[in-house]
Specification:
Number of helices: 8
Shape: globular
Helix content: 40-55%
Distance between the termini: 34 Å
Bound molecules: zinc ion
Strand order of the largest sheet: 1-2
Strand content: 5-15%
Number of strands: 4
Structural class: mainly alpha
Radius of gyration: 20 Å
Length: about 200
């Protein structure tokens, strides 16, 4: 992660843009590494999307001991934090008449969605709540809050913001499908095959 963020992304991509007078937020690069390495961001994201597999068009396989060892070796402390949940995920991935983990008691709190980046607010201490455009919104980080509340307004620093930067139209999944039946949601997503089965069944 260190090499990818600092060498590939920062030194070879971002820093050269400075000569075109782009302002590079150096502290954010530091935080992106901190988020992945110290705050477990990637593990939280994996858990979130694995939880919601019935409404994805893909599903992560359950893990075995070799996988657990790999994660623990690469990310010391991983098993204590996520191991139990993945054990349960593995159990529930065997067919025996139970429902998917999404609806099972797996000690998982469904998180709020970030209005700007659309990934959920997975790092609790980073979450921001604010009323913007007369609506209470949640953000995964101060940066995403700034994006919506400051930068992506109709005007920023005296210049009009192009339509693609205005976060308009349909936003989060949860509002879009609020109060809808799961079967209707899956149909609406286009995940039903010609033979009537879903893409993952
Ligand atoms: Zn965000």
């Amino acid at each position: 992660w260190h090499r990818w963020i600092y060498d590939d992304y920062y030194r070879s991509y971002l820093v050269p843009l400075e000569k075109y007078r782009l302002v590079i937020p150096h502290d954010l690069v530091e935080e992106s590494w901190n988020r992945i390495w110290n705050k477990g961001y990637v593990h939280e994201v994996a858990q979130f999307f694995a939880t919601g597999w019935p409404v994805n068009y893909w599903r992560i396989d359950g893990m075995d001991d070799t996988d657990f060892e790999w994660f623990e070796h690469k990310y010391p402390g991983w098993y204590d934090k996520y191991g139990k949940w993945w054990e349960r995920y593995g159990e529930l991935s065997k067919r025996n008449g139970h429902g998917p983990i999404t609806f099972a008691d797996a000690n998982y709190e469904y998180p709020h969605r970030c209005w700007s980046c659309m990934v959920p607010c997975l790092i609790r201490e980073d979450m921001v709540v604010d009323e913007v455009d007369g609506q209470v919104r949640t953000y995964c980080s101060e940066t995403c809050h700034w994006t919506d509340a400051v930068a992506f307004r109709p005007q920023y620093e005296g210049r009009p913001t192009p339509a693609m930067g205005q976060l308009t139209g349909k936003r989060e999944w949860e509002t879009l499908y609020h109060d809808m039946d799961l079967a209707e949601i899956v149909q609406d997503l286009g995940y039903v095959r010609d033979d009537g089965k879903t893409l993952i069944a």
